[in-house]
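Justification of computing resources. Each target in the renewal requires a structure prediction run like the one illustrated here; the chain below, 482 residues long, is used simply to show the kind of job we budget for.
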Amino acid sequence: MPTPQLADFVKAYDVRGLVPDQLNVDVAWALGAAFARVVVAADGAPGVVIGHDMRPSSPELSRAFADGVTAHGLDATLIGLCSTDGLYYASGALDLPGAMFTASHNPAQYNGIKLCRSGARPVGQDSGLAEVRDLAQELLDTGTSAGPSDVARGAVTERDLLGDYAAFLRGLVDLSGGRHLKVVVDAGNGMGGHTVPAVLGTGAGLPELPLEVVPLYFELDGTFPNHEANPLEPENLRDLQAAVVEHGADIGLAFDGDADRCFVIDERGEPVSPSAITALVATREIAREVAAGARAADVAVVYNVISSAGVPEIIAEQGARGVRTRVGHSFIKGEMAREDAVFGGEHSAHYYFRDFWFADTGMLAAMHVLAALGEQEEPLSRLTAAYSRYAASGEINSTVTDAAASTAIVREWAAAQGAEFDELDGLTATHAGTNDTDDRMWWLNLRASNTEPLLRLNVEAADVATMERVRDDVLALVRGEG
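Resulting structure tokens:
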């Protein structure tokens, strides 16, 4: 087999490749050795904590990575099966750099690695991943498969942290005093099937909560026999939506493959916008900070450029400060640390918490929604209606030959509509609108993919008709139909 070219699958934020053509035990060893030298030793950490998801290749790959780490005199703590936020918990609680073997929501033939520094601080292309990639490529190209001869091999230990993770989350959100809720959870045969029984049930020996969990696809199976573990695709939510209605449930929760993202379904079987969840959780976190003695004006919440316009509005209504950032977890995490933000949300259903080392955890966001629902008697649809103010298109991808030229055409069109612009992340055009029914508020964001010849369009407006008009006009321009 030819030597894989790591630049083909070491992405901006993580590693994501085909097994075994791209990601195999030799590559995992080289990446472990490079991570040990570039990040772990340079940071002065004594070792690495390593976890993995339920994909068939994950145990072997994670052990090969550990071999690369220990060959360079550093220790490896293997925590076995875990969600990505379980790995972040381990990195924070043990104060160690971490490696999580997962391809998240990607199909079964993929695997990958998410890397972090001690305290769950992100490792991306601009914060060490490029150097790790280049050194690992050098090790592969030269056939190096052993550590320095003058360095004693590090130790490998195994540790189960699932119970500690569950207890830590329970300590952040108290669900014990709410009304009884029936909750349907679709784990998609991913790691939610491992973590939900521990956190929301009694699987880790914690006290019973006033929750009746109806499980869907809790069997860990990295071949995804029922549907892909990607709840961002509407097709993958249909079983959950039907089950919520069938069981008369109060709420439905869908986790992706590594359970770091959580999508919410209301009692009618309708999806709740991740932006509405961002606004709901932000309101709770702001209130908690104020109750603890903080001035609301000193509380920061981070959101990205494709979040609903309702998010900064609601943050401002609470007297707090909204901080807008680019799409992507490294940008969100970096901005949260700079601002000491209490919470951050992305429209992709990643939710970040200062109390969780500024890392993302879908489980903690789900617990906030359950707590908010359980603290009052209204159904979820009515509770979240206050946080869902505008009509959104969702993200729509278009294949283009010249992203810059297509974007320029859209900018010219939007300027003729009286829009204002910013380029924090792609092109954002905002039309303030008036009270005239034919001139309502809208905004759009057009971003080029970093890895594919795609333009990603998001449109939001004061009403459905305006959103659809702007969406259709812009798509026609982007796709050369207008």
